[in-house]
Protein 1
Amino acid sequence: MVVDDTNAQAATTATADPLLAGTSNGAEPSGQHFDVVVIGGGPGGYGAALYGASAGLNVALVEMDKIGGTCLHRGCIPAKELLETASIVRTVKHAAEFGVIVEPKTVDWSITLARKQEVINKLAGGVVMLLKNRKVTMFNGLGSLGPDKQVHIVGLDGEQADISGDAVILAPGSVPRVIPGFEPDGTIVVTSDEFFHLSQIPRRAVVIGGGAIGCEFASTLADLGSSVTILEALPKVLPGCDDDVTRVVLQSFKKKGITVRAGVAVTGHTPNPVGGTTVQFGDGESIDTDVVVVSVGRVPYSGGLLDAGTLVQVSDRGHLEVDSLCRTDEPSVWAIGDAIASPQLAHVAFAEGILAIKDILGESPTPIDYGKVPWAIYCHPEVAFAGHSEATAKAAGYEVVVSKHRFAGNSRAQILGETDGLVKIIAEQRADGTAGTVLGVHMVGPWVTEQLSGGYLAVNWQATVDEVAELIQPHPSLSELFGESMLALTGRSLHG
């Protein structure tokens, strides 16, 4: 969404606003009562506020930093902006293959960072505008839940207020997990919070953690010219992905010059007098680097969230404990997003916010099936999947039939010059040996994050292979490969 500069500026300077940052009724901060009070202005929090307000509820939103949360300001959006810069670099690099001759170019990192911030400002301004237009009362401060759904707010200027609600939704978000001995300093050791403010592209980088975030950072840096090494303590990178998908990513990373070391743990690092540091890992091995990017997951942010006397329970890992409808043990209090033990994905937080509001309205919502949510990883090549992998389907006791088709034979992929990757479909095998219900769809390759919707619907609607195979895919298109893969499971195919 494109908004004017005043809205964008309002979003980026929210921390300078007084405690009552966006009230629509002119009332004094303290003593106000709302239908719903939401603590946390990230995707889950502002999503719940917008959805609740559109249903006619009087909603308050409490945010201590900037509306939009980690995803908008220090996560999803800036990461994808830098990945798009990397995509442009790849396009220029291969332009001659299309008959387009360009002079050698360099990356002006300052312009890249400025464009990243411009995109963030416009999106943040759009969210603030939506909240204001729907009459959501916004408080800029740290909110904490007390007994009887009382919310205490401490503004950044020290001003305090107490408000209350018929219902409260806790959406405090998360912070990067750190490793002892690798505390971020913003220069040599960084997490996702500091990465987007690096003053220059590092010549060498070590990425600790081979999950989705780590692979996205590694892919970006390699395309921008850095020498990159991934160190992953688990036996494989992208541990939640199907093995066939992971193999494609590893092959592509090898072509980029990314070194991947799985099954090794870091033990420390020693800063060098001339700059950079030496990372120690495994059994006495070490590597010199300019920057260490720590990408080992995130932990719930719950500091100061709960006052004495509340019944909200916190697990040993720091998650707020909820039932299948995101209800806590405190009556009329819900918790959503990264603060609970569900997939740490912005779109899952949106869904949880909607779920909580529907439950508040008494609409008997269907619980989220977390095993079937869509996953999207934006490294190059992209990864997207929903439902069971082949391994997890077999572990769950299913007899399976599998179909795999590669983008190398897809006309649109050949036109783009992006032929690495495949579509893999896992279906339940019927007693007669034919393919039945679709259990999982896994993709790796060009723009697969934009192609997953058909597979997601098939998995979540428990569609059969025969039903999906009847659907027509456009030609020539990348999504055609999904149709070909499904058609092959019927026992007949065109190009496969």
Protein 2
Amino acid sequence: MHDHVPAPGPADFAPTAAHPLRVRARRMTAASRIAPHRHAWAQVAWSATGVLRVSAGSHTYIVPPSRAVWIPSGVEHVVTVVEDAELRTLYLWQAAGACGPAGLGGGRADDGGGWRQSRVLEVSPLLRELVEQLVQPPADAAREACLAALVQDELARARPVPLGVGLPADKRLRVLCEAVLDDPARHATLAGWAAECGASVRTIARLFRQELGTTFAEWRQQVLLAKALSMAARRRPMAHIAAELGYASASAFSAMVRRSVGVPPSRFFASA
């Protein structure tokens, strides 16, 4: 059950050409949920502490403090608080035709249009400190402009992280996927999830292939990796992470991580 939080009004914290970056800070409790909404400007969702789940477009992202989610203008999104969080929302004005952060000429020239899609970004220590400085905008307009320009430059340079879980359009499958996201260890097999939602294994397997172009096992594996990343960010021991995600041993969990991302857990989780 989620506590619903209304989306910000269109005039609240709206960026402009004169103030191209606005930062909103909110403390939110676990299970809070900001209702689906969209903006005429781009947004970055990040939590200084805690863990978020951000659904934007056709993907959902589980976001620890070492990561942020870029959301282009016009994309409907929902923010759910997985763990008590200090939410920092950056609203960015974009010039006509720009696809990346506004002051950056639409992002790096070699970006390949990736800014037109939601993406996960690595949060550098510098970006973290710059955002905190703008939570209470400086009285000095020149200083505010300098800080905002530095934030946008750090965003343009931030390393994209290939994390994200696809979400289906089919309502039956969407309900099942949302349930897995909330508690991926409740059932270990597709048969258990299919029985819970009252559908046959064959039907659910077919929908996964049609809607998401993958198998249930591969999709759930991405969910488990995202959950594990958020737990690693809270410094949970590897054995605890493995047990909570339903693995019989830390070695079995490590083997899954190696198969999925090609590196051992110690390296995959190091940046968390």
Protein 3
Amino acid sequence: MIDALNYEFIQNALMAGILVSIASGIIGSLIVVNRMVFLAGGIAHTSYGGIGLAVYFGIPIFLGASLFAVCAALLIAFVTIKNRDRTDTFIGLIWAVGMAIGILFVDMTPGYNVDLMSYLFGSILAVSNEDLWYMSILVILIVSFVTFWYRDILAVSYDSEYAILRGVNVRLFYTLILVFSALCVVIAIKIVGLILVIALLTIPIYIAEKLSNSLYIMMFFSSIISIIFTLFGLFISYNYDITSGASIILVSAVSLLLFYVITELIKYPNFRKNENR
């Protein structure tokens, strides 16, 4: 693996993995504490419509997927901000419509040669320098957003009624969280694919949540854990010649299982002693 670091595509893959891990650690924490996991899943699958449009009109995939995902996030925010009880129905609808739009535009594209499977299951080794610039700018925006408005985000995430009493614009921050979630989902698709993106946004966060006593620490731990999972998954992918996205998610899932078992053994030490008798 050390020798492989001489190749530019491996360097790009490692850098992309770190950038996406930081973004997904921060945004994933916001998604979890705001109970938006299903919303993020809807945005992830809806963004396939943007991929189809990008292929059809010959524009960069990231640009098409980002614009489509942001539009979907704005629409979701508008509909769900005051109608949380209707969220599941609307997400199911926009999920299906987005996928359908993407499939139709891909079908109508004459002689397209884009490997769409890479967007379903990820292709981290195909990350370009332009992709890295896009990811870097997004990470800077996300970190700046959380740094400057941390207290407002904290209030909106845990007690929106209290946030309103404090004069916080809950609608604005709710919408911004969804927009950043949409953009984070788009860059994560490049790493693990549309099918697996939710796992990347939730598994490290679940572990970090158990180890943290504040949202800030949770974001930090989530990013570090996600980086570890991503790099280890890439190492396994390179050595055994398997799909990188699936490898990263499997590493995450196995780590989550081990974490759960260890915490249960620590929680109930008497059970372990009785088993040894």
Protein 4
Amino acid sequence: MLASLERYSDSVFRTLCYNHGAELTFTEMAHVNSFLNRNRGSLQKIKPKDSTPVQIQILSSNEGKLDRFLSGFKPFDGFMGFNLNLSCPSKDVIRQGKGAALVKRATKTGKLVALIRNHGHPVSVKIRLGLNQYEKDNKLYLNNLGGVDPDFFVVHAKHAGQSSGEPEDDSVYPECVETARGIPVIANGGIDSPEKVQSLMEMGVSGVMMGRPAMGNPAIFDLIKNEMGLNDPPRPVPRAADLGQEYKDLFDSIGGDEKYKFRFLKVVGRKRAIY
């Protein structure tokens, strides 16, 4: 899966990654309030451009507002459901009781998930290991994994107080998988090689989600699948320069935003390679 990447995950980038092995993509995160207020920038994030499989990643902690939004929402080709974000570490988001602040509120999460299901939509939950080390040590995140019933969980193996440079704690995955009661668990964070994917699969996760590595190499999905024998036959993997041109062609074909194009072309091929 391709993770939600703020300021990068537009339709063009999502489709480019999908064309090179990502099986599901996610929009940039957006507040349900912003949809209700008809915020142009937020509405652009969920405007369909093609039929690439995508889940809409939302921030919400209010059932009434979520119900109002869902009542007016119309699915589109490629829409694969909603992803409820319990992972965002932004202090502003946490002050609003959203994102990682919901990790310890399994009852609230369950109500939000049930509401989305009642409107007839698939739903997944992306979760961190709590707001801080205390919540992680007390395994409060397991309350959601054990008491909420989405179609799948995505577990980012850090707590919200950790920086991007700190390592993930992959040791949590076996217990997460066991606690989830058969609901698939997707691993997220620090995944950039076939060896890492293999080790996580051996812990019982059902799949992986990658974000930052795909910014530099949108073909990382097929690279890893080829190495693991998951593509039969192996699929060709283009050079970074070719991926840049492919992005431009998609941009012209489906229509994109120049700001996203500028950002992507600055990073493609310049991030650390996966090996």
